[in-house]
Specification:
31% of the residues lie in helices and 32% in strands. It is built from five helices and six strands. It has helices spanning 3-23, 32-35, 40-48, 57-60, 92-109, and strands spanning 63-69, 72-77, 115-126, 137-146, 150-158, 164-176. Strands 1-2-4-5-6-3 form a six-stranded antiparallel β-sheet. Helix 3 (40-48) crosses helix 5. The chain is globular and about 45 Å long. The model has no long low-confidence stretch (mean pLDDT 96).
Length: 180
């Protein structure tokens, strides 16, 4: 598949997901009772289906979850001028947030019902500059290990041409969801 074909496929998927999520629950916070009894993968799929709200940060930084699977999460983001630092390049925080979302949500998909996680460590390496001219980029997170107390994952930000923009690893603390 050419980069142009990949980009067209990405944009079609992004538009369909964004429309479904906006028409559904929209941006916001899920109520704990809506999450009770669901695995992490079921929660993430419900978000994609518009049955649970997506986080406000997605609107703030112009990215969205576009697909999930067991141990995998994919986000698509669009770097824009509003994401630039004073030096005139995309701020490292944009890359870090996009990657933290991808690797964290990949871990989320591996959580059984009643378990959750929080990021304990995130390491990001930016290897190529993105700009508002780059167009959509994808962050793909994949679980390396998901245990009872710790989970690790890795992620990459790539363009439709397959070029690598950044990569990351995370260590997450896994815990039981506290009951009221």
């Amino acid at each position: 598949m050419t980069a142009e074909e990949t980009l067209a496929q990405w944009n079609q998927q992004y538009e369909a997901v964004a429309a479904r999520m906006s028409a559904g629950a929209g941006a916001g916070l899920a109520h704990p009772t809506d999450l009770a009894g669901l695995t992490g993968l079921q929660q993430m799929q419900a978000m994609l289906d518009g049955k649970l709200p997506y986080p406000h940060i997605a609107d703030t930084l112009d990215f969205s979850l576009v697909e999930v699977g067991e141990g995998r999460a994919v986000f698509q983001g669009l770097p824009q001028l509003k994401h630039y630092n004073p030096l005139g390049t995309v701020h490292g925080g944009w890359y870090a947030t996009l990657l933290d979302s991808a690797v964290g949500c990949a871990v989320h998909t591996a959580m059984p019902a009643g378990r959750a996680y929080t990021t304990a460590e995130l390491s990001v390496n930016i290897v190529r500059a993105a700009s508002y001219k780059s167009g959509p980029l994808r962050a793909i997170g994949t679980v390396i290990h998901a245990g009872r107390q710790l989970a690790t994952a890795e992620g990459r930000i790539v363009g439709p041409d397959g070029k690598l923009y950044a990569h990351a690893t995370t260590t997450c603390l896994v815990f039981e969801v506290p009951s009221k």
